[in-house]
């Protein structure tokens, strides 16, 4: 079977233009991602348009020579393969995920809602992932993307600091709500989730700068890290804080030589983060109201029963998430295989006459299972498993420090982001859902760098 040539020929000016169009569209997208959903959607559409134009151009160039001997089915297959992204290790799980989500749309209880979400949200993110691994094929382009990403991450964090000290951010005029910083995001939890992948990358870049004795760059990164930690603290987002602890845990597992530095960060969490949570929100990390046993007779058995009675701890903690999760599980049981349909969760919960139950699941995985069935959840978890397994394995093979720092930072940040998503609707929001798929693309792009692992920096 003749297939389209996926590489760009030196005289293919349209292909080269489309490639750089994708690069700068995605760089602009990641730059505006925290601040404007409208601009995010505009640059997403632009990147996908460049991707499709590049594929159409490639098919048109190869069509006369490669399809002359093919029948109709062969020509259809040629066109289908022509629009496919570069082959990568996520192809198979992603194909099954798309199929599972599409089946949930077919059997949806609200077909119109599901169809719009399938094309307007889900396929948009999938094509952004395709566009990323299509265009970011060398270290120079990955470096450009990271510069845009971290530059606006710094602006976003600085905006959060301004909001904390002045009461409103300097761009949109968002007011500080209940003492919690949200910067450009609609909620403090969303801001905290955004900070986690940035924290993973900046932490590893700082390690690498110190190792390479780049003291000026290291000093800048150290100040950036302090700003990120301060903003994470000021969100008072317990789900994001748990994600941060997971990042520290993953870093220690990957390199125990960093345990002293990470131990210092953990002490900051214990002695600064936790006391401030009680002061601002009157909460503790695992329970909403402080009801811990007092010291006295039978104190130790009471302590064990309180802190290790997991069912009671779940019911008492998480701002009533136990009841949100219980509702989500009941919806999953009503349609366990195909789900109720993509983007239908808000409609399904409104069938309950008790308005107190009209809340999102506050757990991306339960909501995914409710909407796309256990099949959709299984395919998504399969994709995550393959991605993270390859990421961890390739960390052992990359020799250049900067690509290694990018991959390690992405892996640790993604772990924290995914754990935070267990307690919130993180990747169901437009901005953070797109961010997650771009992190997927970044990891795959680094892994797919040519043999020898070209350096990201000049």
N/C terminus separation: 41 Å
**Tally of helical runs:** 17
Rg is 24 Å
Backbone structural class: mainly alpha
Number of strands: 0
Residue fraction in strands: under 5%
Oligomer: single chain
Give average pLDDT, whole number: 86
Helix content: 55-70%
Question: What overall form do the CA principal axes indicate?
Answer: globular
Low-pLDDT segments:
290-309
Topology pattern, helix = H, strand = E: HHHHHHHHHHHHHHHHH
Describe the sheet with the most strands: none
At a glance:
With 458 residues, the chain is mainly alpha-helical.
Fold topology:
Blueprint: H1 13-32, H2 37-66, H3 72-82, H4 91-106, H5 111-135, H6 139-166, H7 188-211, H8 215-235, H9 238-254, H10 259-281, H11 299-307, H12 310-316, H13 321-334, H14 345-349, H15 364-395, H16 401-420, H17 430-447
Helix pairs in contact: 1-2, 1-5, 1-6, 2-5, 4-5, 4-15, 5-17, 6-8, 7-8, 7-9, 7-16, 9-10, 9-16, 13-15, 15-16, 15-17, 16-17
Can you walk me through this structure?
The chain has 458 residues and is mainly α. Helices cover 70% and strands 0% of the residues. Helix 4 packs antiparallel against helix 5 and helix 4 runs antiparallel to helix 15. The longest helix is centred in the C-terminal third of the chain and has 32 residues. The protein is globular, with a radius of gyration of 24 Å. The chain starts with 12 loop residues before the first helix and ends in an 11-residue tail after the last helix. 42% of the residues are buried. About 4% of the residues have low confidence.
